[in-house]
Amino acid sequence: MKALPPTALTGLVDLHCHSTASDGILSPAQLVSRAKSRGVSLLSLTDHDTVAGIPEAQTAAREAGITLLPGIEFSSRWGKQQVHLVGLGVDPESVALQHAIQKRDQLRAERGERIAARLEKRGFTGALDGARRLAGDGVLGRPHFARWLAEAGHVEDTARAFKRYLGAGKCGDVTVEWPQLEQTVAEIHSAGGMAVLAHPLKYGMTRTRLLRLMTEFHGAGGDAVELLSGRQNPVQTREVAQLMAKASAATDAPQALRCSVGSDFHQPDQPWRELGCAQLPADVEPVWNLWQTSANETAATRD
Ligand code: MN
Ligand code: MN
Ligand code: MN
């Protein structure tokens, strides 16, 4: 991993967001320009299971004068629980990454067909074509089915589509055998990236279970946890920090879990996850120190 340019940390940092390459509304170039106008100087584009948006984002970032870190948000599993791992600083060209992406493409295509079949059974004819049309060249996801259900007038809005048909326990909630946690950490590392546990508070787990997840993630070589995901209540942030400290102490890994931060931006009308809306407090160890450290070490070895 290359060292960050000195300008990378002069503004806000956002290490988790989505473009039209997955389920975001803005194109990669529009996303970069919005980030720039919001004062972000270090941005990572982390689309679900794809790096297809990275080249366009990279060009736009160069023009805007901000630093873009190639990233990805991998679907993964911890036992039966679905979890998301962000890979930061991955090499988009790496064979290991392409392989990990292909595996998930296959799983997603199969899931799309199964969701569609269940919706068709309920009488929603044309769900698969509709969702595929909305996904365009992007990765097909549940939000595309939600948008199609709303557009076709079957529900009032996408939130209700999830509530009635796509959310946990509903007919469109099909299980996918995503690669397991340890495997996903290894996939990210093989692609040259840092493995980050995304939005720990979004899994609806008890604190005890979350501590176990973080401990196993750290034991599997996980590098960092999103201390902040979007706008977050300070009490919750403190809880996550405490769990991270406990998880780090529980394994004999040489480095403690670092802190990452991202908005999880998908679209402009959601102020609670607007680009750059969350920033790390000054007294924590940020994940980007790992790049600065490894860059320093490389320099030292060369001398
Ligand atoms: Mn998403
Ligand atoms: Mn996620
Ligand atoms: Mn996300």
Describe what you observe in this structure.
- The chain has helices at 28-37, 54-64, 95-121, 127-135, 142-151, 158-166, 181-190, 207-219, 234-250, 289-302, and strands spanning 12-14, 40-45, 67-78, 81-88, 194-197, 224-229, 258-262.
- The chain is α/β, with parallel strands linked by helices and 303 residues long.
- The protein has one domain (9-102, 180-302): Alpha-Beta Barrel (TIM Barrel), CATH 3.20.20.
- The chain has a seven-stranded mixed sheet.
- Helix 9 (234-250) links the parallel strand 6 (224-229) and strand 7 (258-262).
- The longest helix has 27 residues, at 95-121.
- One manganese (II) ion binds next to loops.
Overall pLDDT confidence: 93
Count of separate DSSP helical elements: 10
Rg, rounded, reads 19 Å
Which structural category fits the helices and strands?
alpha/beta
List its salient traits.
alpha/beta; TIM Barrel; seven-stranded mixed sheet; disordered C terminus; binds manganese (II) ion
SSE diagram, text form:
Elements (H helix, E strand, L loop, with lengths): L11 E3 L13 H10 L2 E6 L8 H11 L2 E12 L2 E8 L6 H27 L5 H9 L6 H10 L6 H9 L14 H10 L3 E4 L9 H13 L4 E6 L4 H17 L7 E5 L26 H14 L1
Parallel strand pairs: 1-2, 2-3, 5-6, 6-7
Antiparallel strand pairs: 3-4, 4-5
Helix pairs in contact: 1-2, 4-5, 5-6, 8-9
Bound molecules: manganese (II) ion (MN) (3 copies).
One manganese (II) ion binds next to loops.
Describe what is shown at a glance:
This protein has 303 residues and is of the alpha/beta class. It has helices spanning 28-37, 54-64, 95-121, 127-135, 142-151, 158-166, 181-190, 207-219, 234-250, 289-302, and strands at residues 12-14, 40-45, 67-78, 81-88, 194-197, 224-229, 258-262. The protein has a single domain (9-102, 180-302), classed as TIM Barrel (Alpha-Beta Barrel), CATH 3.20.20.
